[in-house]
Amino acid sequence: MAEKILQVKDLIVNFRTDSGIVRAVRDVSFDLHKGETLCIVGESGSGKSVTSKAIMQILANNALVDGGEIIYDGKDLLKIPEEDMVKLRGDKIAMIFQDPLSSLNPIVKVGKQLTEAMLLKSGSNSKNARRNFNGKLGLLVECRNAIATADSQRAYNEEQCHTFDNFCIMSTKLEGAYNEKHRVVEELKAEIEEKLFLIDKNQNVKIPAFLRLIEKQFPQTIHPDLIEENAETAALLARVSAGVGSARKTKKLDASARAAVDEIHALLEAALQKEKPNYFTLGYYMLKNPNDTAKIDAMELHELNAMTREYLDKNFMLAFIRESAKAIQYSHDRSIAAKKKALSETDALLRYLETEKLEKKATLDYLKGKIALVEDAIDRMEIEKDGAQYTFGSGITHAVRVYFRALKQNPKEQARFEKETAKWNALDAKGKTPDWKVVPAAIIDEEQAKENIRLVIRNLQASLRRDIEADGQFDAEAKTVALIDWLKEQASAVVYHVSKKMAKARAIKLLKEVGLPDPELRYNQYPFEFSGGMRQRIVIAIALAADPDILICDEPTTALDVTIQSQILELINRIKKERNLSVIFITHDLGVVANMADRIAVMYAGKIVECGTANDIFYDPRHPYTWALLSSMPDLDTKEKLEAIPGTPPNMIYPPKGDAFAPRNKYAMEIDFEQQPPMFSVSDTHYAATWLLHPDAPKTEPPKIVTERIARMKKKAQNAAAKEVENHG
Amino acid sequence: MAEKEWNPAFEVGRDAGVFRENEDILLRVENLCQYFKIGPGREFKAVDGVSFDIKKGEVFGLVGESGCGKTTTGRSIIRLYDITSGSVYFKGQRICAGLRGYKQELAKAKKAGDAEAVDKWKKEIEKAKYDHKNCNREYAKKQADAIKAKYAPKIEAATGEEKDRLQKEFTEELRLAKTDRIMNKMQMIFQDPIASLDPRMTVREIIAEGLIIRGVTDKKKIDEAVYHVLDLVGLVPEHAGRYPHEFSGGQRQRIGIARAIILNPELIIADEPISALDVSIQAQVINLLNDLRKELGLTIMFIAHDLSVVKYFSDRIGVMYYGHLVEMTTSDELFAHPLHPYTKSLLSAIPLPDPLTEKARQRIVYNPLSAHDYTVQKPTLREIVPGHFIQCNDAEEAQYRKELGL
Q1: Is A29 exposed, middle or buried (CB count within 10 Å of its CB: 0-12, 13-18, 19+)?
Q2: How far is CA A592 from CA A586, A636, A639, B78, B116, in A?
């Protein structure tokens, strides 16, 4: 089995509404493997969309994530701060919504919407990278100076870090120049492709201007690592220039110029395939030997890389790592000591908050000291941030403020709230559905507010303990290497820009990938000019623009009709295979998932009731709700009356005590109303939460309509297999 | 046979308007065209020459992809739009008539200088205008005559108190009959149950609205009728006082159905009544429509794009593609022997709850430009085997016949 890319564990999501707490997701757990499609099937209100929104961290304001973990890439998405989530959302985890029009801007051309993310990302990345680089390097100097004993040592530190900074600047300069040329190559290639496409389509193209553009831009692409200047390129240019004259007269691209343009295109394409030199090491070499350009130009790429690498390691890097590792070890030790202190202090904090009479001002002042302690315990040389420590200050202050608001509550409102609740309960006990009434302004439960404070502290404690326990495995050397790699990445990100033309070329490539005909012409159209299926394709292209690992599709075909639906499903399937994506596919229609799904999870009333591979669910369903779903939809051979599921899903403000499906379930037993069933395992891949699977339960057969259909399907499959054998025989 | 043999490929010029009331056929659509203006001198042909008939008591399914004109057809039939050309007959009465076709013929006749034809077409236009405007009045007159004929001998025979009572009953029924409209016998169920119910009216008001407009004033009678239909659609009388937002999607669609059946219609046009509902609720609504159909003897025109539901529910199916009816036959025949390439492509796209066959499924792509060659001869709707209509020309007809082994 492939590696797990996303794990959801015991997720609990509640919604605070005027009429009470709606329990939308109750203890949902599943794993998503690399390159597989997981389908989540359920009625509206079963919590399938809420689960996906929790993964994306785009839940509504009144949502409370009351427990669980969503682990992606070793991080818990529920715990990391919003600034880190921004980097994952849409970038690593992308989402497609039900209505394509609602996710497209009606007054912006589709091309702009596609390139928007690419351009924005490029700009902010560069700025962030510069800030990150300078900040971390400054910290490193600080740490190294802190353990230095003599002034000479300090001077050495300053000098070494200065050299590091300098050669990084040198390498970014070199890389920037290379990137600039690379950009011109990419743009020119895209330009040539687009214009040639338009010429082939007999569209109106100003050919002399096009040729003059090539004439002007092609010399700019000359760079030792991309395209080398020689007689051949000069000859090509001459042929293009000759083409301009004849194009002015005939307004057509003559054969010789066309061939030259094609050759230039091939050259550019080959240049883009070439490997990039290691500018990080080259930067140091150039800093030390600024006059060696001729020697470097003459060397082969891999030779050059090896030589500069060796040069850097011997002269600078090994010493730098050795010295820096000490600083990092120091920073870590200091942080562990501070963490131990903070951990012991949190118990005191807990005790303080437990005391009977708390005064607001005094408490907040007291908290300030503790927050400073916790923030002091942050290991600042770490690249990866730990959410619990970073957000502790704001989190606990907010929770404490809410608690004081709860204490100050208006007694009149409180009384009214209690009265209304009593009325509600009385009506509910009689078996009536009470009318919806306006409940008094938000009443905060004192106990809950206290519990929330404790939760923040417990989270912090868990994080501190984990760090302290992991102390023994700390490897300062490895951390230093990782830090330098990270700094290198940041330096190279400073000079990486995506220009508008590059973004356009990439967008057109994407549109081609999602099967939009003539993307060059469609690029400048508005969303309303497309049909529903085409719009959904564009939305998929936008989702793919950032090259995500996980694609979440929230009912992407519900608004489309049958033919378009099957086209979109085929498209998602194809893209999944090509890019090795992991897909979470959410739908209420079991019919559409048979083709897509590797595994299926059936959800009801906020819980997963059955989970298994597609074959398990369709050929051997075990949960009565799955039976009901299967029997309520007709297929082409259904003649008998459909077995509709009676009633409606339960009101999740008052979740049922036992199995949520029991009131609508004709196979329900007494225990179903009393106790929630655990997950019973049917096979290694197949689980279902129903008491019918308990060894003591009476043997129950699925409804006739389902068994008959399964028998029919099996027969069909056998027939097909037999035919195949016959054909081969 | 001469009367039954009716070629749906109707040419303008057939003596429209002489169609006699036929017990079998409830609704006949002849050459229905609905064009929309989309700019100066430009028209969008949403429905272009569609002809079919619906027999009493059957369910006629209309399928096709979105934008193919199936909803427009339904709305034109119930006169939400004024049709461009063609006629619709309901219970033997012409209820819609478009003038475009007649006007073109008239212009042609004028150009040819054929005085007789000019006269004829002018008369036709007059007649169409009259029918279009006065179909309700004509129907009311017919109903009133029937009431009069029913009561006249009874009143004459009765004496004393009995006569007074009969007289009273007669006046009341006559009053209602005089305001009766043929369009009341045709009702529509809409796709979106939220958008089609007024959020500021209680369920009672929504359902009773038709009766009140119809002229029923007795509150007790109205309440009785409302409770009766609520019972029919599986709701309880307590629901009558509530507002639409208090109901779930399936219940809202039930309210829409209750509103449609309170005037005892004979034909219901169901415009994608289940597309906006969850799968488990869809089955409830389909079962309800099926029960009502048996109980009330309804005829249903069922517009949808979910083919497995249409197959389950309909007796006959018409397939539409860009304003044209391309194939029409019984549902079993359609699925057993689909002939038109578009139908084949549509059938190949149905998702099935069966992973093994589903993974091997090959979708057939329909491209009208490469699938047909209509440069030589334009296609018409032809009956290949009795009851199986298909849009084709001579060459294709021969090919389809070969395919069927005829």
Answers
A1: middle
A2: 10, 14, 21, 34, 61
Provide the pLDDT for residue A385: 65
Q: Hey, is the C-beta of A83 within 8 angstroms of any chain B C-beta?
A: no
Sheet with A607-613, side-by-side order of all strands: A93-96, A550-554, A582-587, A37-41, A599-604, A607-613, A687-688, A680-681
**Percentage of residues in chain A with pLDDT exceeding 70?**
96
Q: Are B85 and B100 in contact (CB under 8 A)?
A: yes
**pLDDT at B277 exceeding the cut of 90:** no
Q: CB A347: neighbour CB atoms within 10 A? A: 11
Q: How far is A637 from chain B (nearest CA, A)?
A: 8
From residue A552, give the alpha-carbon distance in Å to each of A9, A34, A587, A679: 18, 13, 11, 25
For residues A430 and A483, the answer to whether their CB atoms sit within 8 Å is no
Q: What is the CATH number of the domain that holds B197?
A: 3.40.50.300
Q: How many CB atoms lie within 10 A of CB B65?
A: 24
C-alpha–C-alpha distance, residues A20 and A411, integer Å: 19
Domain map (residue ranges) of chain A: 1-92+550-729, 110-315+478-494, 412-443
Residue B132 resides in a domain: no
Token pair, residue A366, equals: 């007291």
Assess A41–B contact: CB distance below 8 Å, yes or no: no
What one-letter code names the amino acid at B335?
Answer: F
Name the E strands within A434-540. none
Q: What is the pLDDT of residues A404-423, one digit of tens each?
A: 877 777 677 777 777 777 77
H or E segment and range at residue A170: helix A151-200
Q: In what order do the strands lie in the sheet with B42-55?
A: B42-55, B25-39, B85-90, B93-99
The confidence band for B17, taking pLDDT boundaries of 50, 70 and 90, is: very low
Determine, for residues B351 and A638 on separate chains, whether the beta-carbon distance falls below 8 Å. no
Asked if B284 lies within 8 A of A709 by C-beta distance, the reply is: no
Partners of residue A531 in chain B, C-beta under 8 Å: 67
Q: Which helix (H) or strand (E) holds A326?
A: helix A318-354
Q: Say what percent of chain A tops pLDDT 90.
A: 10
Asked if A540 and B324 touch (Cβ cutoff 8 Å), the reply is no
**pLDDT (average), residues B54-80:** 89
The verdict on a CB contact (< 8 Å) between A648 and B250 is yes
> Helix, strand or coil for residue A632?
coil
> pLDDT tens for residues A249-258?
887 778 888 8
Q: Is the ipTM of this complex over 0.85?
A: no
DSSP B144-195: HHHHHHHHHHHHHH--HHHHHHHHHHHHHHHHHHHT--GGGGEEEE-S-TTT
- Can you tell me the distance from the alpha carbon of B176 to that of B258, in angstroms, rounded to the nearest whole number? 21
The superfamily in CATH containing domain A1-92+550-729 is P-loop containing nucleotide triphosphate hydrolases (3.40.50.300)
Distance CA(A612)–CA(A367), nearest Å, equals: 49
Res. B20: pLDDT tops 60 = no
**In this complex, do A709 and B358 lie within 8 Å of one another by their Cβ atoms?**
no
Q: Rounded mean pLDDT of chain A?
A: 84
Farthest-apart Cα atoms in chain A, separation: 95
- Does A565 contact B351 at a Cβ distance shorter than 8 Å? yes
CA distance linking residue A330 with residue A144, whole number of Å: 9
pLDDT at A57 over 50: yes
Mean pLDDT of B92-106: 87
Which of A298, A13, A373, A323 is CA-nearest to residue A153? Answer: A323
What's the pLDDT score for residue B259? 93
- The answer to whether residue B285 is domain-embedded is yes
Domain annotation covers residue B196 = yes
- Give how many domains chain B has, as a whole number: 1
What residues contact B272, with CB distance under 8 A and at least 6 apart? B71, B191, B303, B304, B305
Contact B63, B310 (CB under 8 A): yes
* Mean pLDDT, residues A394-403 taken together: 80
